[in-house]
User: Fold Methyltransferase domain-containing protein from Streptomyces anatolicus.
Amino acid sequence: MENAALRLKELAERLIGAELPVRIRGWDGSEAGPPGAPTLVVRDRRALRHLLWKPGELGLARAWVAGDLDVDGDLYETLDRMAGFIWERGEDARTLRQAVRDPEFRAAARKLLALSAPFLPPAPPPEERRRRGRLHRHTKHSDRRAISHHYDVGNDFYELVLGPSMVYSCAYWAAPDATLEDAQRDKLELVSRKLGLEPGMRLLDVGCGWGSMAIHAAREHGVNVVGVTLSQEQAAYARKRIAEEGLTDRIEIRVQDYRDVRDGPYDAISSIGMAEHVGSERYLEYAHDLHALLKPGGRLLNHQIARRPQTDESAYSVDEFIDAYVFPDGELAPVGTTVSLLERAGFEVRDTEAIREHYALTLRGWVANLEAAWPEAQRLTSPGRARVWRLYMAASALAFERNRIGVNQVLAVKTPEDGASGLPLRTREWRA
Assistant:
């Protein structure tokens, strides 16, 4: 008997320099590892080739998306147990990439592979987006391609994951046992109150998605809305919803880059889960553009995921899995950087609310929706794409829970020269 699991366990423990915290089931049916622990299933030895040819997170991601790696047991518990040696290794520890390149490790892995498979580089899964280098990042053309990769995978798939609200950003939970729909409605209302929306005002919704914020603002607050997105599928879906709501006289949805909006001034701007796509090189330009589109006294609500500060903030870093499979060219910045750039563009930042625990609850809700309709999710997109979303959302939920990343709502004002911001004296009442 080959006993692939035992040999894989030995390789893994050499790799991480510690006892493996999960069980392993090999392609031959053998198992090894701590009893009762969740099981990492290696369905095909090709998973090991993915890791050897592309050491690190991307190799593991390719094996997962291809279906060569799976989990038998609770996915959250498995990721939580593995986080310490995949995502949270200390600066002085050996990285996964360095360990995989160790000659002794590679020799042992080749012996295992040689039992029945040639040592050839496996092709990446078709769901992977080919990277083009930093020179091509955040042009209007590249941003359209990146947005299409992420959002144009089928509105029916997103309906299944997001639920009827069709809101793809952090909800705002009044209580942990609230429904996802209630929490998303409360988030849209919170944004509306922070912006001080009143009948007759003009709102620009940057990155309007499937139209949920635009519909809420027009229906509940009587404002006129322009929503812009780079996704053709989102725009078509949003327009259909707006027509069904009888709001076509109040809402216009455009397939347009925010950099091409020229019909200001607006009374308010909402940017909810869009700024992560802007990029560090373009962020000050983004802030200047939105500032120019607001009338004096107008408010911006910038809702954005943030990472923790790095030791060397000049270094460029990217999450390989996220970049290749989820948000191409997406970048996260510390909230302090975001606030500083908004201020440099002329905004007066008046409030920052951190809501990272809310995003963990939101993501767990989306994962539950996905898992409850797993066969249908695979049919609507592809088995690989469904696996991408399940891993991405579950790992992200843990990242928010562990404070590896956060999410913040930053309220900023284009304060006029006389200093009259229009905000109330008491904070977080939002209306003058």
Summary: Residues 383-401 form the longest helix (19 residues). Residues 89-94 have pLDDT under 50 and may be disordered.
